[in-house]
DNA sequence: TATTTTTTCGAGTAATATTATAGATTATAT
DNA sequence: ATATAATCTATAATATTACTCGAAAAAATA
């Protein structure tokens, strides 16, 4: 399951992606419009900022804005920051690999073998889909 | 992440798949060979039995055996029993659908739209892969 | 029929992860 | 100076996962 943390992160990035030419937006503003607990959002935005996706400014008139083109922010990167691995088993993870507790012989593990395929299929979609795509999909869905 | 419950379920089914022509195997035997906590495995096997995948027999000489051809037991069915939904968001689930807490307008949700695609890609693999396939993959991996 | 074996059942607990909150601190603008 | 708004550290609340306990029911066999 996708954590709320990740959903909130995506939603915040979408909001900021729609706010590109405007002055930075405050946490409290984002929290209100998307109905995200403010203090929780605070942590999430900080993570995204530390990962280089957001620009932040303190003090009056401060807030957050995207540090990159929304076309260049892909779901896979966000999810790795907020949820960690994409793979469903740690032994099939590219960026967060570690042995499964239960596993005796990884090299011949049929489960791992299948979930490497699942990971690749998931990864393909998530690394092709950007914040800009999400915004585009939403407007497309409205018009349908 | 795949729960241990699901991994244990798959492992148990694989063991039983290799035991097809033998008399039923006891919980304790499966638990030992696969190093699964016995009481936990007990619950898991019961779920699989109630879902019709296993045959069980009480008393001396009793135990568990597969109720179907290992070629006809697919990962997707096992996972739905042990972990529930395949989709990463409840609103994209076929068998366990429910609204996301956070969601205001499902019909135009770009997140949902992407994760329906992810679900489909995952589903394809999991509904094509059987216990027999896992066993086959393992022997193939050994010979490589 | 008594005993042993093994699954079944209902409940409970422990460990861990997720979600959320609190309060003080630091930076910036006016 | 003062107000604004992000940052930091810690902790509380809740949910989920992993696992345990003890007794009951069913079947075999001696």
From TrEMBL, chains A, B:
The protein, known as: Rrf2 family protein
Keywords: DNA-binding
MF (Gene Ontology): DNA binding; DNA-binding transcription factor activity
Organism: Mucilaginibacter gossypiicola
Entry-linked InterPro entries: Tscrpt_reg_Rrf2, WH-like_DNA-bd_sf, WH_DNA-bd_sf
Keyword DNA-binding: yes
Source taxonomy: Bacteria, Pseudomonadati, Bacteroidota, Sphingobacteriia, Sphingobacteriales
A cellular component term, taken from the record's GO annotations: cytosol
Gene3D superfamilies linked to this entry: Winged helix-like DNA-binding domain superfamily/Winged helix DNA-binding domain
PANTHER family listed in its UniProt record: HTH-TYPE TRANSCRIPTIONAL REGULATOR ISCR (PTHR33221:SF5), WINGED HELIX-TURN-HELIX TRANSCRIPTIONAL REGULATOR, RRF2 FAMILY (PTHR33221)
């Amino acid at each position: 399951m996708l954590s709320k943390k990740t959903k909130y992160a995506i939603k915040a990035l979408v909001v900021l992606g729609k706010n590109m030419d405007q002055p930075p937006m405050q946490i409290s503003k984002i929290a209100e419009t998307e109905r995200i607990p403010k203090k929780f959002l605070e942590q999430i935005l900080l993570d995204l900022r530390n990962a280089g996706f957001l620009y932040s400014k303190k003090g009056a008139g401060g807030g957050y804005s995207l540090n990159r083109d929304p076309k260049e922010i892909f779901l896979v990167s966000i999810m790795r920051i907020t949820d960690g691995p994409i793979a469903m088993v740690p032994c099939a993870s590219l960026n967060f690999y570690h042995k499964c507790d239960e596993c005796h012989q990884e090299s011949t593990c049929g489960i791992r073998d299948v979930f490497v395929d699942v990971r690749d299929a998931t990864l393909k979609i998530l690394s092709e889909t950007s914040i800009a795509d999400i915004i585009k999909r939403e407007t497309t869905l409205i018009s349908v």
